[in-house]
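Design a sequence for this backbone.
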């Protein structure tokens, strides 16, 4: 599991702690060190992150089917446990892979769009431009100039 994935889970745990009366009482009798036994929800989130890393591109519907969860419950669970929208994470992974393919391969834009899960290259180009603030073709040209 990547360092980024661990930080998502850890930051969520830290946000959920509060200065309640229970915390004040524990100052008199210190609690034992926190055990790192993952909850069922955390295990599911780790499984989701593993699935995303192992077989991109995947969709929310594919993940929900694999985990036997509804689409909306999967989105809620992931956001609740990580603080990150699953759709945003999947899109970020797709764009990273597209940028890598543009830089390292000679595939056509249409082939790259298909490789990262877009049915239509026009949708891919719009998404890429929104994410990187430049067209895929210009991104490719610019990255090749930088290597030279």
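Sequence:
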């Amino acid at each position: 599991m990547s360092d980024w994935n661990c930080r998502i889970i850890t930051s969520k745990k830290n946000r959920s702690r509060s200065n309640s009366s229970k915390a004040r009482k524990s100052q008199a009798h210190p609690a034992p060190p926190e055990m790192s036994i993952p909850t069922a929800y955390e295990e599911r989130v780790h499984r989701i992150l593993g699935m995303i890393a192992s077989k991109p591109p995947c969709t929310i519907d594919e993940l929900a089917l694999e985990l036997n969860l509804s689409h909306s419950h999967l989105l809620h669970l992931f956001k609740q446990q990580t603080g990150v929208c699953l759709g945003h994470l999947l899109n970020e992974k797709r764009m990273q892979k597209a940028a890598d393919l543009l830089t390292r391969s000679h595939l056509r834009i249409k082939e790259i769009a298909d490789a990262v899960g877009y049915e239509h290259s026009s949708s891919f180009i719009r998404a890429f431009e929104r994410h990187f603030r430049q067209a895929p073709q210009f991104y490719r040209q610019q990255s090749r100039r930088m290597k030279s």
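The CA atoms of residues 49 and 55 lie 10 Å apart.
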